[in-house]
């Protein structure tokens, strides 16, 4: 019945090259050489008697036949992967892409609870400030993004909208009771597309000039939190990210500090992973975690 089908490995190599539109990138994803990828594609084209890629100087492009096979190959491989995850005695691996700050301050402190409830799923965290393309990189199952949530974006789930507060150690607050006298810590986003949340905003809302205050900026929120923990100032940072520090008594809210509206954390997955069991379980767990923070 399936005697005319190519070997599964050649379909897997083709799927990777078709998604990434690069033999070199496919080789990196599959941990083989670019030459091996090229040979597999050539052999597949000879067996099918049709060209799947147009080779250009620095790029490849799918032919109409290649595009048809790419859709079928991706769907078939995903279905096989989903069933293997469900019936295998081995742990499923769920790869999550997110920012370093969210991973360190929010996700990692809660992961043990997830593993206790879902021992068959191992979570691997990939941190980056770059936005991974989930439609091309099959190694990533879900991404947790930060910014303005658009409910019209497919395969996205709103998790929580945060608030920013003003936090410092107890000792620092005893020494600097007035915010105007303290060193002020804030995050300068690497992503210029994000609405800034800074001390300047706070002072403008109070019709106060912030030019005379000492403000230290960091490009990562967890660096701001670490500076506050080290007693270096008052941090203007997400209340969500300092939850553990507050529970442990390492940081406290500034008695005269106010809350500012923050941005939204949301989960994003790809079309082929939307109904995956491990993705669904992780999504429900995240929603449960964040429902307790609102």
* Total count of strands: 11
In the CATH hierarchy, the architecture of the largest domain is: 3-Layer(aba) Sandwich
What coarse outline follows from CA principal-axis ratios?
elongated
Strand content: 15-25%
Indicate the radius of gyration in whole angstroms.
24 Å
Low-confidence stretches: none
Overall pLDDT metric: 86
Q: Encode the helix/strand succession as letters.
A: HHHEEHEHEEEHEHEHEHEEH
CATH class of the largest domain: Alpha Beta
Count of folded domains: 3
CATH homologous superfamily assignment of the largest domain = Periplasmic binding protein-like II
Biggest pleated-sheet summary: 9 strands, mixed
Tell me the span between the first and last alpha carbons. Answer: 56 Å
CATH topology of the largest domain: D-Maltodextrin-Binding Protein, domain 2
Figure out the total of helices.
Answer: 10
Task: Furnish the topology, listing elements before pairings.
Elements: H1 8-20, H2 23-30, H3 34-48, E1 53-55, E2 60-62, H4 64-87, E3 92-98, H5 100-117, E4 121-127, E5 142-147, E6 156-168, H6 170-175, E7 183-187, H7 199-205, E8 214-218, H8 221-229, E9 234-238, H9 243-247, E10 252-253, E11 260-269, H10 277-291
């Amino acid at each position: 019945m399936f005697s005319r089908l190519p070997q599964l490995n050649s379909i897997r190599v083709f799927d990777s090259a078709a998604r990434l539109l690069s033999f070199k990138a496919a080789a990196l994803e599959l941990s083989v050489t670019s030459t091996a990828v090229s040979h597999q594609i050539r052999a597949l084209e000879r067996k099918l008697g049709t060209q799947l890629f147009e080779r250009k100087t620095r790029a490849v492009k799918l032919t109409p036949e290649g595009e048809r096979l790419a859709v079928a190959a991706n769907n078939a491989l995903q279905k096989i992967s989903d069933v293997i995850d469900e019936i295998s005695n081995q742990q499923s691996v769920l790869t999550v892409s997110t920012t370093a700050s969210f991973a360190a301050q929010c996700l990692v402190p809660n992961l043990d609870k997830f593993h206790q409830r879902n021992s068959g799923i191992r979570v691997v965290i990939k941190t980056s400030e770059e936005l991974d393309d989930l439609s091309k990189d099959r190694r990533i199952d879900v991404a947790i993004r930060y910014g303005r949530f658009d409910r019209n974006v497919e395969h996205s789930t709103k998790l929580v909208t945060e608030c920013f507060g003003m936090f410092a150690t107890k000792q620092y607050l005893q020494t600097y009771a007035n915010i105007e006298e303290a060193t002020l810590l804030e995050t300068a986003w690497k992503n210029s597309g994000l609405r800034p949340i800074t001390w300047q905003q706070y002072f403008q809302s109070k019709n106060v000039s912030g030019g005379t205050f000492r403000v230290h900026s960091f490009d990562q929120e967890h660096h701001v939190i670490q500076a506050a923990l080290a007693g270096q100032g008052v941090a203007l940072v997400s209340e969500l990210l300092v939850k553990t520090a507050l529970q442990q008594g390492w940081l406290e809210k500034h008695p005269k500090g106010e809350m500012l509206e923050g941005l939204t954390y949301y989960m994003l997955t790809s079309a082929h992973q939307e109904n995956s069991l491990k993705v669904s379980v992780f999504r429900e767990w995240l929603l449960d975690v964040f429902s307790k923070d609102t």
